[in-house]
Structure formats: structure tokens, C-alpha cells
Write a structure and sequence with these properties.
With about 220 residues, the chain is α/β, with parallel strands linked by helices. It has one domain (about 5-225): Aldolase class I (TIM Barrel, Alpha-Beta Barrel). The chain contains nine helices and nine strands. It has a nine-stranded mixed β-sheet with strand order 1-9-8-7-6-5-4-2-3. Strand 7 (about 135-140), helix 6 (about 150-165) and strand 8 (about 170-175) form a beta-alpha-beta unit. The radius of gyration is 17 Å and the shape is globular.
């Protein structure tokens, strides 16, 4: 299966959002957006207001990854109302109210995503995996810069694909973090459906994102040989 690259908008130049989105729209059909509250992870990035302003600029699928302590229902609703297409929630944070979250997201006509930190097993979703549309595998621990890819994550991706084939599940898989020159061959070998690309592999390549995208694709093809 040919992987699709998904830009993480955390890597973009926020002073030139419209220009960069207009350029990326010619290449990407999905964007990854992180809502981070500084408590879940020691970082802070965007709010549903940003998504609301982004929505008219693109027809691409918007995958909103919520890293918000306590995961209140109103932040999920605000993200849905802002125009998100997929709401992705961390597995360890949703166990108590998971079916409430699923119902809220699906009833709004949106897709339900689950995010697995490196130490969280695939089996945590055993009672609701049939309702999952996207599984995002964190390749690193959220909130800490300059980390190496954690190898066990690649095994989990392979296990998810085996399970999908055996049970006929419809979820897609995505990896977030740790994908770069030194690891891309290993990441590619898992057959993961989507690879999130941020500052390292995309936005730092060139200010012109048409050129940056071409460089990213050329690098990917070279790295996975």
C-alpha cells in the first residue's frame, strides 16, 4: 500500500497560514492538528478557534488530536463544531467514558480516532476497536523534543494490520513522531497507511511548500530504498 503523507500543522509558519495552506492543498488531502493545553504535555498549540478559521481554506480531512487534561466533553464538541472530520483521543484517557465519546463523535457524523502512546498496548481497545476509524501510533512520548523512535511502536503497527486483516476491521493506521531519515525505511516497512510529516521532513525543506513537498517525496523514496 502506498503511504499518504499527512502534514502536522504544528510545523507550519503561523504567520503565513493561508499562504501555506493554499500551497499544501495541492498536495495533501489530510491535515493533522494538535490541540495541546500545556498540562497533558509541556507544550501548547492552537484551539478550536484556529480550526474554525482553517476550515474554509481547505477541503482536506482535518484530523484533530486532543491532548487536553481531563478531556472535557465541551472541548470535543467545540472541535466538532469547528469543522474537524476526525476526533482523535488518547486511549488511556477515554476508558471510563469511551462509549459516550464514541456516540458523541459518531452522532455528529465525524470519525473516531484513537491515539496510542508507545507504552499503551493495542489490546486496550478490544471492546470498541470495531468502531475505530483511525489509530494513531505515537512514535515518541508526547511533549519531549528530540526523541528517537521507540522500536516497539513498529511492532504494534504490524500487529494492528494483522488484526485488521483477520477481523475485517476498517480502521486506518498512522504514525506520529520519530519518522525521519534514519528511521523511514523501518517505518515504511510496517505498511502504515499514513505518515505524519512536520518540521524535520517537510516544513524545513523550503519556504515554498511546493518545493518542500517535492523534496520530502524525493527524500522518502531515497530513504526507503
Amino acid at each position: 500500500m502506498e503511504q499518504r503523507f499527512v502534514p502536522s500543522l504544528m510545523g507550519m509558519d503561523l504567520m503565513n497560514v493561508q499562504q501555506q495552506i493554499e500551497q499544501l492543498n495541492e498536495h495533501a488531502d489530510m491535515y493533522h492538528l494538535d490541540i495541546i493545553d500545556w498540562h497533558f504535555a509541556k507544550n501548547m498549540f492552537i484551539s478550536p478557534v484556529f480550526i474554525e478559521q482553517l476550515r474554509p481554506l481547505t477541503k482536506a480531512v482535518l484530523d484533530t488530536h486532543l491532548m487536553v487534561e481531563g478531556l472535557p466533553l465541551d472541548i470535543i464538541k467545540a472541535s466538532i463544531d469547528a469543522g474537524s472530520d476526525i476526533i482523535s483521543l488518547h486511549a488511556e484517557d477515554i476508558q471510563r467514558n469511551v462509549f459516550k465519546y464514541i456516540g458523541m463523535i459518531k452522532d455528529a457524523g465525524k470519525k473516531f480516532g484513537v491515539v496510542l502512546n508507545p507504552s499503551v498496548p493495542l489490546d486496550i481497545m478490544r471492546y470498541y476497536i470495531d468502531q475505530v476509524d483511525l489509530i494513531t501510533f505515537m512514535g515518541v512520548t508526547p511533549g519531549f523534543p528530540k526523541q528517537s523512535l521507540i522500536p516497539c511502536v513498529l511492532d504494534k503497527i504490524r500487529d494492528a494490520h494483522v488484526l485488521r486483516e483477520q477481523k475485517g476491521y476498517q480502521f486506518k493506521t498512522m504514525i506520529d513522531g520519530g519518522s525521519h531519515k534514519g528511521t523511514m525505511k523501518q517505518v515504511n516497512a510496517t505498511g502504515v497507511d499514513h505518515i505524519i510529516m512536520g518540521s524535520t521532513c517537510l516544513f524545513s525543506m523550503d519556504r515554498d511548500l511546493h518545493k518542500a513537498w517535492s523534496i520530502m517525496e524525493e527524500n522518502f523514496n531515497m530513504w526507503v530504498r
